[in-house]
Design a protein that fits this description.
It contains three helices and 18 strands. It is mainly β. The protein has a five-stranded antiparallel sheet, with no helix packed on it. Strands 8-7-6-9-10 form a five-stranded antiparallel sheet, with no helix packed on it. The longest helix is centred in the last third of the chain and has 14 residues. It is elongated and about 80 Å long.
Amino acid sequence: MAKLGQFNFLKISRKSARGTFFETREFGQVFLPAALTPGHCEVGDKIRVFLYRDTHDNVVATTLSPRVEVGGVACLKVVSVSNVGAFLDWGLPKDLFVPFAQQVRPMREGEFHIVYLYEDNTGRICGSSKLNRVLKTECLELKTGDAVKLIVGSQTDLGYKMIVNEKYWGVLHKEDVFRELRFGQSLKGFIKKRRDDNRLDITLNKPGSQNDSLTEKILASIDEGEGFSEFNDKTAPELIYSAFGVSKKVFKAALGTLYKERKIVILKDGIRRAE
């Protein structure tokens, strides 16, 4: 079944100097230009193509990869605005249309907005920044420690709203933010906790995976400094992440472990090995 706004594996039915043709039950004959046809393809072969509507509203195929498919979420740049809506760059020759009615706030040229893709009732692929219509606040399928794909949303008093696997809202709390983040940034993370209300707390480090190796790194930094390290519980989070690759919260927990084991002494300006 051929689907609009998604990648499909379609069988080549005919080739010409102009390009390649596919026969589909849903859209009839679909054309792929010769310049986009992979080499050595023959009639009867199946190839992976993306289907969308061109400027003439015809369903066409491309081997280019858009930044998002129908049902997905991505951060895209506004390239123009008309009297009917905004047009965003999604990596294809025809820009993605976002009607005014699907904009949380008016989009301006040059701005970046997070949108999800949908097919409207006329068969047109459109975008919408009204994410609360599709993203869920509660999740039952993920658990603590699961690796997830993230998109950075807006900053709040708690930290950052995060889009999880293009399906859920999560929260990255400010105490777990140890590097600069930008709106719309895609990155990997983990489920820190699924709360009793099934809402998600996010972390950028795998929970409970690094404390032992981190304590060894801290002790090594002391030895490299001839018995002293300038890193302690007052050090800026970005400096800690640059040196050890962990959040300040994780670093402080490792310091606490070493202190309880009487392996270090915590000073105002750093740490040293206990005698």
